[in-house]
Predict the structure.
Amino acid sequence: MTKRLTVAQAIVAFLKNQYVERDGRQCRFFEGCFGIFGHGNVAGMGQALEQDPGLPYYLFRNEQAMVHAATAFAKSTFRMRTMVCTTSIGPGATNMVTGAALATINRIPVLLLPGDLFARRNVAPVLQQLESPSTPDISVNDCFKPVSRYWDRIQRPEQLLTSLPEAMRVLTSPAETGAVTLCLPQDVQAEAIDVPEEFLQRRVWPIPRTRCDRGQLERAATWLHSAKAPLIVAGGGVLYSEAFEVLARFAEATGIPVCETQAGKGALSFDHPQNVGAVGVTGTPGANILAREADLILGIGTRYSDFTSASKTAFQNPAVRFININVSEFDAYKHAAIALTGDACVTIVELQRAVNGYRVEENYPAKISTFRAEWEREVDRIHGIRRDPPITQGEVIGIVNHFTEPSDIMICAAGSMPGDLHKLWRTRQPGGYHIEYGYSCMGYEIAGGLGIKMAHPEREVYVLVGDGSYLMMAQELVTSLQENCKLNIVLIDNHGFSSIGGLSRSCGNEGMGTEYRHRRNGKYEGDIVPVAFEANAASLGAWTIRVRTGEEVKAALLTARKQTRTSVVVVETAYDQSVPGYESWWDVPIAEVSEREPVRTARAKYEEGRKKERYFV
C-alpha cells in the first residue's frame, strides 16, 4: 500500500512519527519545526506544515537564531529530543550555516531543511541562485557540507526513502550526531511520490548504551590500581548519557576528585565532596593544580578542547597517563589514552566493578577538601565584592546565582561571562548550567534560552547576556512573547567587548576596537556610545528595567520573576573588572616582531608558556 504525497508532505509525515528509546523510556524525537518562509519553501514545506499540524510550526525572526534555539532545545533534553528548521533558498539558507557549525562542534542533533535551486534547471538562474560557469551542480547550500555530520540534496522524490532514514541514523547516534542538512530543491518539494505506508508508520530508534572492550577495561583497572594521584575530567558526555548518579557513586567509592569542563559542569552538584570545580583556562586553582600533578587522568565524555587542556599545558606530571571513556572512538583515543569506547553510564559502572575496591591514598581526600574550602571562600569573596556603580560582573553573577532556584536553568555563551560562570556558578542540578562553549557563539543566548524554555516550560530560564551578544541577535525576544515562553534576561552593559579587550591588553595591545566609543581623531577614543537597551527591549514587548547597584539587581530579579512575559534587567558593569585566571595558560600567539615594548614583553612570556605544551604519544 502506498500514499500519494508531495515530497514536503512525505517529510512531515515521516518526521512526526520518529521516536527514540533509552532505558525503556520512549519519546517523540522531533517536537516541531522552526521556520521562516520564502519563495524557496513556502509552497512546499509551508503547504505541508499547514496541512498537517502533527509537526507543529513555530515562526522565528532569524534563521541562525532558530538553529541556536533547536540546538539548545536538544542540548537541554540531553539529546533525546530536537527540532527541525526550514528555510527558503539563498540568504535564508546560508543564515543557518553558523548554527549548523555550532551544533556539529557541540555534537548536538538538529535537522536542517534549506530550500534549494530548481532540480530541473530549465528556469535557471532563479532568484538568489549562485551561478558557477564551471558546473550547474552547485548552490550556496554546498556551504553546509563541512559543518554537517550528514548532507544530501534531494534531486528526485524517491531519494527521500533512503535519505531520511540515513538522517535519523546520524541524528540519533551518540557518537556521530550533529547537524544534518537535507537540501530541498523548491520544485522537488512540490512533486508527488507514492510513499509506502510502512515508511510513514511509527518507528522507534534505540539510543544504545554501547559497552567498551573487556580487555581494555581490565587494562584500565590495572592502571587505576597503580595510580597515586588520579583525577576525573567530566565532560558533556556525562550529561548526555545521564551518568551523573553513577559518576557520583564512582567518585565516592574511589575517592577520586572530579573536575568539570564547560559542557560537563553540573555533572556533580557544586557541593559534592569530590567536586573540585572547573578545570583548564577558566578553571579553579585546586582543579588545575590537581591536573598538573595527576599521574592518571580519567576523561569521561570530554573532547579535550584547548580550554580544558589549557592548550596542552594542564597535565605536567611526566608519568601522567590517560584513560578515556567516550562513545566516540575519535575522542576516546586522544592523549594516547586507553580507549574505553562506550556509553559513559554503563562504562563507569563496569569500571567500578573492575577496580574492585580501589581507593585513593589516605592523604588525598584531605588535599581535596582543602582545595574545595579555599575555593568556596574565593567564590564568596568575588560574589561579595561591593563597589560603587558600575558594579562588577562577578557580583552580578553571585546575586543571580543566589536568587535562582535549584531547578532553574542558566544559559550563556560568549564573552567574558562563560569563563567567570565556569568558575563561579554553583550548579545544583544536572542541566541547570547551559553554556555553549564549543563554538562560543555570540548571539546564541536569547535564542538558546527560548529553545530551553520550549523544552522545559515548567522551569524558569535565566539568560545572562552581554551587550555585544544582545546587539548581534536579540530579535527572538519577539518570538518568546509570541509563543508565551517567558525568559528572565539579565543584560550586562559594559560598553564593549570586555573579554577581547582584556585579551588584547594581555597581548601587549591597547584594546583597539573593543570599546563602544565614538570615533575621534581617527580612533575610537571618544565618549561612550550610549545605548538604551531597556528601551529597545521594551519596544519589542518585554518588561524592562535598568539598575545600577547590587540591591537594585536583587529587587529587579524579584519583580521580573513575577512577570508573566519575558523580562530584561539591564545592569551596567565595570569594563575592566574581571575575575582572574588561576594556575592556567592559553595559547594565543603574540606578534613575533613589534615596535611596541608591551608586545615584545608579552611575546617573551608567550614563548615561555609554550615550553610547557606537551605532545602525548
Remarks:
- Residues 364-383 form the longest helix (20 residues).
- The first strand starts at residue 2 and ends at 6.
